[in-house]
Specification:
The complex is a heterodimer. By secondary structure, chain A is an alpha/beta fold. Chain A has helices at 50-57, 80-90, 106-116, 121-134, 150-162, 180-194, and strands at 6-19, 22-35, 39-43, 65-70, 73-74, 91-94, 168-172, 200-205, 216-221, 224-230. Chain A has 6 helices and 10 strands. In chain A, strand 9 and strand 10 (224-230) form a beta hairpin. In chain A, helix 3 crosses helix 4, helix 3 (106-116) packs parallel to helix 5 and helix 5 (150-162) runs parallel beside helix 6 (180-194). Chain B is of the alpha+beta class. Chain B has 2 domains: 2-43 and 261-384, no CATH class; 73-239, no CATH class. Classes of the chains: A alpha/beta, B alpha+beta.
């Protein structure tokens, strides 16, 4: 698919959660393409299956039926360890609650993905410094996350998602905990630093203040993609 | 990643100190109580340890431990001497006799009567005087702790320190005059009574009149003689019980283990230390993991395999385990050092260090296993929950 410029290819993807006797069909037959170099926003009401879909795309959850290829790789077919390693090498994450390890400094937090990939500490820290410079936090290397504002913490999270040069970055509600101005700033940073010709971004959000940062918007409802529309501002 | 594991643990000061304290407490209690137990049990056979010369102890077959004296007739000594393979055999009197102190009080003392000719069975270390001074009239040698404490003379002024018994001082043992001619150092006895050495014949004068007064026959085997075989020969020839020194120690040790509540009481204290340590350290470590579950999930989402997370948790557990163990054992050693010269029995052996280390290892592995189980089952999708 990547030969055709497609980063993520989903066809008829379904996922059901089973808790005891309860079955919840979270996504039902999703068809979706994410192009290389584009920023796709996945929007929709709470509980419509957005987070489940990006979990499937990121190889965190296995879907039940259908096909989901990420850079031509069928992640579901991989073993658990292989899948984890694939995730570590190819996917970056930005979380709503940042998920920065509170006992590590900003630089150490950013270096974590590289350390997981087996890079040396010196190498990881050097690259972390470089990426923190991109998100304008070069002066906060030794600071603990708790000493930063929400917007700064999210920029650290963006740096962490970028540090190992993944081909796909998945963001879950990156601005929902931030005020409008900070949210806009974070999105600007994301677009400027994370998006590139060989990297795609999928952002799950229901924050309509940031929709104009998207290349395309996929609207979900009740576990289905109901509409995929280009965002004019970036066409 | 190991550095991150250490930082995650160490920088969470409250939990880190909580876990260390739990493990330190467990290690301290396990080591200290086991050391006191060992010290106490060592005292039960201290009287055997102090007599290094004889190879074999001969006694009444019904004797259960060293203080369970069942006297023999004096003629038994000659029967033992007649057994093939015996180099020499000497009598030993051992009994609890009342000594009257200069203030009129009475004190039960552990009196040992040594062979008049050879003085075999004497104290391992003399502090004042010499063993041969026992040949003087009415002579006795007292142990230093007894001389300083229970046998000490009244202070010169009211409220002052008691005056230790010294050479030349006298006591009355069973209405007989006894003159201190020396002070020795011996292993502390189980009941902590003062130890008095004298000759066998004088001890039998001190002792109340009885038909039988010979407590033990101490035997030296001929060079090259098999001790077990000689014991068997003595048993067959005399009908008495004969044990090597080690066997007699074991007999005494096993008696106290079997018939007294000491092992149970100490066992309970050690078990409590283990259980409380496990509860505190295990619970705090588990809480630490629970609080960091989101971050373990994040690491997992970012590509950390279960193997990496397992090693991180194990490192954290081993680190707190090593620190807690070190501090606990250090505390127990300090306790032993500070109170070693008192009535307290304390004997910290290498084996006890291993036992304590094993116990702490079990606690940390148990704590780590609960946490590992939680992290292994962790769905990385947790990271998407706000």
């Amino acid at each position: 698919m990547s030969k055709n410029g497609i980063a993520v290819y989903c066809k008829g993807v379904t996922k059901t959660y089973i808790t005891g006797a309860t079955r919840v069909l979270a996504i039902r037959g999703v068809d979706l393409d994410v192009r290389i170099g584009e920023l796709l926003m996945l929007v929709g009401p709470s509980g419509c299956g957005k987070t489940t879909l990006i979990s499937v795309i990121a190889g965190i959850l296995d879907h039940d039926e259908g096909e989901c290829l990420v850079f031509e790789q069928n992640v579901r077919a991989m073993g658990q360890t292989q899948k984890t390693r694939y995730r570590g090498a190819n996917i970056g994450f930005v979380f709503q609650a940042y998920n920065l390890i509170p006992t590590l400094s900003v630089m150490e937090n950013v270096a974590v993905p590289l350390l997981i990939l087996g890079k040396s500490r010196a190498e990881a820290h050097a690259r972390a410094k470089e990426v923190l410079g991109l998100v304008d936090l070069a002066d906060k290397l030794q600071v603990l996350p708790s000493q930063l504002s929400g917007g700064q913490q999210q920029r650290v999270a963006i740096a962490r998602a970028l540090v190992h040069r993944p081909r796909l970055i998945v963001c879950d509600e990156p601005t929902s905990a931030l005020d409008a101005d900070t949210g806009r700033l974070v999105m600007e940073v994301l677009r400027q630093t994370a998006l590139s010709e060989d990297r795609s971004l999928i952002i799950v959000t229901h924050d309509n203040r940031i929709f104009n940062f998207a290349d395309r918007i996929a609207r979900m409802d009740d576990g289905r993609i109901v509409l995929v529309e280009p965002q004019v501002a970036h066409q | 990643m190991y550095r991150i594991a250490v930082k995650m643990l160490v920088n969470d000061r409250g939990k880190y100190l909580g876990i260390i304290m739990g493990l330190t407490f467990a290690s301290l209690l396990i080591t200290q109580q086991s050391s006191i137990f060992t010290g106490l049990m060592t005292r039960t056979y201290g009287g055997i340890t102090d007599l290094s010369q004889p190879d074999i102890w001969v006694m009444d077959p019904k004797v259960l431990f060293i203080d369970d004296v069942k006297p023999l007739q004096d003629m038994e000594l000659f029967r033992v001497r007649g057994v093939e393979g015996v180099e020499w055999a000497v009598p030993l009197y051992k009994g609890l006799l009342k000594a009257r102190l200069d203030d009129g009080n009475f004190q039960i003392c552990n009196v040992l009567g040594l062979d008049d000719a050879t003085l075999i069975g004497g104290p391992p270390q003399m502090i004042q005087g010499s063993l041969s001074d026992l040949r003087q009239q009415d002579a006795i040698i007292v142990n230093d702790v007894g001389a300083r404490t229970r046998l000490a003379k009244r202070p010169k002024e009211p409220g002052g320190k008691p005056i230790p018994l010294q050479i030349g001082d006298t006591l009355e043992i069973n209405d007989r005059r006894a003159v201190v001619v020396g002070v020795c150092k011996v292993s502390r006895t189980f009941q902590s009574q003062p130890v008095i050495y004298t000759t066998y014949s004088r001890a039998t004068v001190f002792a109340p009149r009885e038909r039988k007064l010979l407590s033990f026959v101490l035997v030296k085997a001929r060079q090259g003689e098999d001790l077990k075989a000689l014991c068997d020969r003595i048993k067959q020839t005399t009908g008495l019980a004969a044990y090597t020194a080690q066997e007699f120690k074991d007999l005494t040790y096993n008696y106290f283990m079997k018939y007294t509540g000491i092992p149970i009481n100490f066992g309970i204290a050690v078990a409590l230390g283990f259980i409380i340590g496990t509860a505190i350290a295990g619970q705090t470590f588990y809480n630490f993991t629970l609080e960091n579950l989101r971050y373990f999930g994040t690491l997992k989402a970012m590509g950390a395999t279960n193997g990496i997370l397992l090693r991180m948790i194990l490192l954290q557990a081993l680190m707190v385990g090593a620190l807690g163990y070190g501090l606990g054992v250090g505390g127990a050693s300090l306790f032993g050092y500070l109170f070693g010269a008192t009535e307290l029995s304390f004997r910290l052996t290498r084996e006890l260090l291993y036992v304590s280390a094993g116990a702490i290892m079990i606690i940390v592995i148990f704590s780590a296993l609960i946490s590992i189980h939680k992290v292994m089952r962790l769905e990385p999708a947790i990271v998407f929950k706000a």
